[in-house]
Structure formats: structure tokens, C-alpha cells
Amino acid sequence: MAVTEKSLPPAICLMGPTASGKTDLAIEIAEHLPCDIISVDSALIYRGMDIGSAKPDAETLARAPHRLIDIRDPAQTYSAAEFRADAIEQMQQIVAAGRIPLLVGGTMMYFKVLREGIANMPAGDQTVRDQIQADADRLGWAALHEKLQQVDPVAAEKIHPNNPQRLMRALEVYEITGIALGEHWQKQAQGVDDLPCHLHQFAIIPEDRAALHARIEQRFNIMLEQGFVEEVRGLFERGDLHKDLPSMRSVGYRQVWEYLEGNLTYDEMVFRGIVATRNLAKRQLTWLRGWPEVNALPFNEQKNSDKVLNIIGYTSI
Q1: Could you list the residue range(s) of the whole structural domain that residue 183 is in?
Q2: Does 61 map to a domain?
Q3: What is the pLDDT of residue 3?
Q4: Which residues sit opposite 67 in a β-bridge?
């Protein structure tokens, strides 16, 4: 096995929109190289959320174990900062064993904070959040976005008015610290040097949007056949979960939850679940089109694993 000279050992980042074939490609790469897979997916972290998150099945995990899956209960939260710390720890363990970390998933914020670090920002303050929510209920999120433009134009430019979660966090940070979130980002952008590996970044980027949409619809219907509704029903009946938890906001889960509440018919749930998944893919592709130093891989290409090996300078073993 030959490797190009790098100051740090290599790690492979494999990104792409949902349903683009990332897992299959990762397993193929792992069959050619001594890789250990780290999941970069905000839904796979949750126990009991298997079908709707497209979690690899037991047979697949036996062939290619994935780290950072099933590490939280759906009632718990998990931040991007926690992911970064966990991922770095796993990368260090893999490198110490003489193997290559292979980070695979579609949660682009996780990849971003892994690469760039994360600003040292305050913990959430429920009192402040309640006040912001009350203002939003009274004035609307568009008015709060205008307020953010006044106090933090950098963050306001990056945060859409229809993204209340990020908008609330930006206003919360400003209310707690008096410092704009954009300033925190600027400090963060000064660089990080704690990564244990040199990141080789790859992304499956479909050019044929219709083909990806067809794959998304097919996969959602297969999930339903596999018992997706029953999976969510088990979570729904626990009694300690609700649809505003981060876990239940996952694409597909929220739509099935609303069906179980009686707010959607079955057909409406299926339609909205597919549309939500398409919108997720669109957001992921928007991230990737502006991603620095990424090697684009074609959708549904049989020789992508060879391209990955060639680019990072490894030969198959």
C-alpha cells in the first residue's frame, strides 16, 4: 500500500445528499482499504430510529461497523460541538490502531464544525428562549429576522427568516453575551489545529435531479413497507417524546408523527414525507456546491471507489 506524504495521517470524508448511495460506497471503500467508518448523521445517533433514518441493518454493520450510531435516546439532544468532540476521539482511536477514519453522512453542519471548529458560545438559556418565542408569537419570525439584521447583519445574511431554530439561537447568543453570533463565527474562522488527520473530502453530487428524486421516493416507500409507521408509533406511544424534539424533527419522522396525531391522512403523510426528503437533499446540495476543497463524485457511478483511492494516493490492498 502506497500513500502520498502528508504531515498528518489521512481521513476520508464522504458526503452527499440523502439517498445518493453514500453508505454503499463507504462499505466498498472499506473493503479495499483498512478503514473504520464514523457516522456523520444527526438521525443515526438515536436508538430505536432505524427504518426512517436508513440506518444500516445488522448484517451491514457486521460487515462494516459504524461508530457514533445509537449513542443517544430520542428524548436527548446532541449538539454539533458534542459531535465534533466525539468524532475527533474516534479518529484518534482509529489512527492509533493504524487504520484510516472514514467519515460518512449527510449532516453538513457536523462536517462543517469538524473541519472549522466551533465558536465558544454560551449554553442555552430557557428564560431567554421563552422570551424570544413569545416575541415571535406576537410579532412573527420575519420581524425577529429584521431585529437580527440590526444587531447581527453577518448572521442575518446567513440565516433564512423561515429557519426559526437558527434565528432563535442567534438572538439568544446576542441577548446572553451582547456579542453578535457573526463575531463568534469570525473568531472561529481563524482556524483550528486540533484535527488528528488530513481530511480528504469527497461528495456524491447528482447532476440528474429527477433521478435522485426517484430514488428518494422509492426509498421512502420501501421504508413504509419495512414498518416505518410502526417504528414511529412505538416512539409516539412512549409518552415522553414530542414532535418538537430534535429527534422527532428528523425528516420523515415528523410527518409520520403528525399522521399518528390525526393531523394528516396517510396519503398526505407519504406526500409530505417525500417532499421533505427532497427539500433536505436540496439543502445538502446547496451546502456542497459551495464546499471548499471537495472532490465531486458522479451519482450512481460504479467506479467511484477507484476514484477515491486514486485521489488520496492509496492503492487497493
Answers
A1: 126-188
A2: yes
A3: 39
A4: 38
162 and 143 assigned to the same domain: yes
CATH number at residue 169: 1.10.20.140
Angle of helix 108-116 relative to helix 80-96, nearest 10 degrees?
70
**Separation CA 151–CA 285 (nearest Å):** 30
What is the tens place of the pLDDT at every residue in 258-285? 999 999 999 999 999 999 999 999 999 9
Give dist(CA 159, CA 141) in Å, integer: 12
Beta strands in the chain (DSSP E): 10-15, 35-39, 66-67, 100-104, 198-204, 294-297
pTM above 0.85, yes or no: no
Q: Which three cell numbers stand for residue 249?
A: 424533527
pLDDT over 90 for what percent of the chain?
A: 72
Q: Rounded to 5 degrees, what are φ and ψ at 36?
A: -115, 130
85 conformational bin, left if phi > 0, alpha if psi -120 to 50, beta if neither: alpha
Count the domains in the chain.
2
One domain for residues 110 and 210: yes
CA distance 232 to 260: 9
pLDDT at 119 over 60: yes
Q: Residue 52 maps to which CATH number?
A: 3.40.50.300
The reported pLDDT for the residue numbered 161 is: 86
Dihedral of the alpha carbons of 221, 226, 232, 234, in degrees to the nearest 10: 160
